[in-house]
Amino acid sequence: MGQRGRHGLGSQRPPRAQWRRRPISSPFSSRRPGTPEHPPADCKLSLQADSSPRPLLLAGYEDGSVALWDVSSRKVCSRVACHTEPVMGLDFDSQEARGVSGSAEKTLAVWSLDEQQALQVRGTHVLTNPGIADVKIRPDRRILATAGWDHRVRVFHWRTMKPLAVLAFHSATVHCVAFAADGLLATGSGDQRISVWSLYPCT
Prior knowledge:
There is one protein chain. The chain has one domain: Methylamine Dehydrogenase, Chain H, CATH 2.130.10.10. It has no helices and 16 strands. A hairpin with a 7-residue loop joins strand 2 and strand 3. The strands form four sheets. Strands 1-16-15-14 form a four-stranded antiparallel sheet, with no helix packed on it. It is an all-beta fold. It has strands spanning 4-6, 43-48, 56-61, 65-70, 75-81, 87-93, 98-103, 107-113, 119-126, 132-137, 143-148, 152-157, 163-168, 174-179, 185-189, 194-197. It starts with a strand and ends in a 6-residue tail after the last strand.
């Protein structure tokens, strides 16, 4: 397990972020597949711009399902039931065509996307405590991290889902996790702290 440290916000002006806007003809609504008249109360999204010639969107729904949307045609390509509780976070490995999702229950679900754009659950991993607020795969696709309601950040080997580390620093629910390009892991919690971790070296 690597070193940890808190990130302090000083008085220096933060770097300016640059965004590129892509115009669209009209808004896009990712209503729950199968019941267009009843949109979900909560929805987690992941845009997969590099996984297909046309933009695709992965959406995790309150009913525990994950759906793949074709943004251009505004149609659902595939849908799979992953959890029995609402999906709280998901991420996708476009090179391996595999994704992972976490929910309010005690499991992580690993699923795949085949050449016909069909989603299929490949396996589940049982956690110690229920409640995953966020999940992220590191850019080098070696490890992934989860943000837990139990105040813990858990690190797994992405290919095998073997548990590698439990990061115990926060005193409230961990709401989000994010990896930098150099492999540093940042975590944010309800305790009003951001922690930055140096973990296993990137390849």
